[in-house]
Amino acid sequence: MTVVCTLLGLAVCLCLIYRIGKNYGSPEISNLYTAPQALLYVLGIFCQQGLDVTPVTWSCRIVYWISYLTAIVIFSAYSGSLVSSLANQRIVPPFTTFQGLLKHGQYKVATVADSSHLTTFQDSTDELLRRIYEELFDKNNLPSTFFEGANNICSIKNYAFIASYASVLALSKNISCGILALKKASLPENLGFVAAKNFPYLGLINFKLANLQRSGILNRIRSDELLQKLPEEKVLWMSVSFEAVQPIFTVLSIGTAVAVVLLLLEKQARCLLRNSWYRSKFKGRKAYARFYAKRNN
Q1: Would you put residue 159 in left (φ > 0), alpha (ψ -120 to 50) or beta?
Q2: Quick one: CATH architecture of 98-190?
Q3: Signal peptide span per the entry (predicted)?
Q4: Which residues does 3 contact at the CB level (< 8 Å), separation at least 6?
Q5: In whole angstroms, what separates CA 236 from the centre of its chain?
């Protein structure tokens, strides 16, 4: 849309400048830059085609120069965007939420056996979480550790593993594939200490933890000691598959074929018009035959 608006704007500027110049005695050819012709000339510039007419006045030449410069900038930006879109492959997950997971229906869901995450799905009052547990959970093959569940992501197709973010971060360097964390498909999680009932020092521990939180030490420990996100894989070079560039080659092949067909049709039409002109100029087949034989000799 931006390119079309730019093209129309330059065509309007060329037409207006030409008309204003003609009112003040411009030496330009009469009826040269009417609205359709100005649009055609600017379109030819954007298509990187040569023009058969060069404007005389500097005002029209400046519009030409701006049109060429704009076309080069747009073409360069489009080329860079095309190369970037082909070289950088964006990973689009099949789902991003629990609703999408349930709607997809092709993924096996698992978590560590006898864990709090499993209890959350088992005893949940949320219909969505309960349906995920009943329909998608692999209840007979739940992993016993986080490491086993993380390895199942790499070895089992369409496998979703629910675990705490900290545990996955700790195991991210020890598994053979990349892991994609879905923030919208997550559960709230709390971190705390487990103590026996009627523990005598529970009040003291809570008091110390409250002081650490109030002074900001807990936040500092969390930001310094715990990783905030999964490490990104560094890809130095990425190949582009043929399927990614196949539409471009298809359009190029179709354009080449159409150009060849039009060239042959134009050549045939030119021959027919030339023969018709010769026949009209030299009336009679004998005169035309003598002229044609003389021309070939």
Answers
A1: beta
A2: 3-Layer(aba) Sandwich (3.40)
A3: 1-25
A4: 46, 74
A5: 20
Domain boundaries, the chain: 2-86, 98-190
Rounded alpha-carbon distances, angstroms, from residue 244 to 230, 248, 249: 28, 9, 10
Tens of pLDDT along the chain (297 residues) come to 777 888 888 888 888 887 887 777 777 777 777 788 888 888 888 887 777 777 778 888 888 888 888 888 888 888 877 777 776 666 778 888 888 888 888 888 888 888 888 888 888 888 888 888 888 887 888 888 888 888 888 888 888 888 877 777 777 777 777 777 777 777 776 667 778 888 888 888 888 888 888 888 877 877 776 555 545 545 445 566 667 667 777 887 888 888 888 888 888 888 887 777 666 665 555 555 555 555 555
Instruction: Identify the H or E element spanning 111.
Output: strand 108-111
- Both structure tokens of 242: 């043929």
Contact 112, 196 (CB under 8 A): no
Tokens at 162, concatenated: 């629910």
Tell me how far apart the alpha carbons of residues 289 and 266 are, in angstroms, rounded to a whole number: 24
Please report where in the chains the tokens 């043929």 appear, as a residue: 242
| Angstrom distance (rounded) from CA 40 to CA 230 | 54
Among the listed residues 86, 70, 90, 80, the one whose alpha carbon sits nearest the alpha carbon of residue 11: 70
Cβ distance 37 to 69 under 8 Å?
no
Supply 228's token pair.
């905030």
> Can you name the CATH fold of 2-86?
Helix Hairpins (1.10.287)
Q: Which stretches of the chain are DSSP H helices?
A: 2-23, 35-46, 58-87, 98-104, 116-122, 127-135, 146-155, 165-171, 202-215, 217-225, 242-281, 285-296
